[in-house]
Amino acid sequence: MDYVVRRAQLDDRAAIKELIVESARGLSRQDYSAAQIEAAIASVFGVDTNLILDESYFVADRSGLLIGCGGWSKRKTLFGGDQYFSRDASELDPQSEPAKIRAFFVHPQFARQGIGLAILQVCENEARAQGFRAVELMATLPGIPFYQACGYEAGERLDLELQGGVKLGLLPMRKKLTEPYAS
User: Fold this and answer.
1) What is the CATH number of the domain that holds 16?
2) Domain presence at residue 183
3) What gap in Å lies between CA 13 and CA 182, rounded to an integer?
4) CA distance 77 to 74
5) Is this structure's pTM higher than 0.85?
């Protein structure tokens, strides 16, 4: 498949938002109810402009069509788009705190074709180059097998309460950064 992984730009935000919605609705139905998916889209899943401004958010671009996205962060916020109420934009200490892997979504028509892995490798390599020794993320239930296959170890599952009392199951995961991926 022909695509390039590139840094997201501010003018990509509308396309990224659309990609996130399509991914959540198309790839989460086996793990979450329609109410959980829609509540997550409204309050948690979304574009984090800080990642774009920090130049640490990437898109898989297939001739102008965004088919995947994801990033890493040097900031304390672990998950949630601009609309999420619980955010901390202060910077992490690479020597003692893990970088954050953030907001990975793949278009349902292009799932399980290596797009997420290609973006994840770029993110882990950049975090490593910035001095981080580990990375952590908050996995959605559909993402757990992918992250486990990439060497992430699971923490204890939690249920995030969203609007209307809807709960979304999530799993914190962590990985030590060792050797970089080959380019």
Assistant:
1) 3.40.630.30
2) no
3) 29
4) 9
5) yes
Residues across the chain: 183
- What is the DSSP pairing of strand 134-140 with strand 99-106? parallel
CA distance 152 to 130: 20
126 inside domain: yes
- Give the position of tokens 């180059």: 129
Residue 40 belongs to domain spanning: 4-176
Q: What's the structural domain count of the chain? A: 1
For the beta carbon of residue 8, count every other beta carbon within 10 angstroms: 24
181 found inside a domain: no
Whether 95 contacts 46, CB under 8 Å:
no
Looking at residue 97, its amino acid is: E
Q: Give the bridge partners for 137, in sequence order.
A: 173
Answer yes or no: are the C-beta atoms of 105 and 69 closer than 8 Å: yes
158 within domain boundaries: yes
Q: Stretch 96-103: mean pLDDT, rounded?
A: 94
Q: In which element (H, E) is residue 26 found?
A: helix 13-27
Q: What is the pLDDT of residue 86?
A: 55
How far apart, in whole angstroms, are the C-alpha atoms of residue 141 and residue 154? Answer: 11
Residues 22/45, Cβ–Cβ less than 8 Å: no
**Amino acid (1-letter code) at residue 62:** R
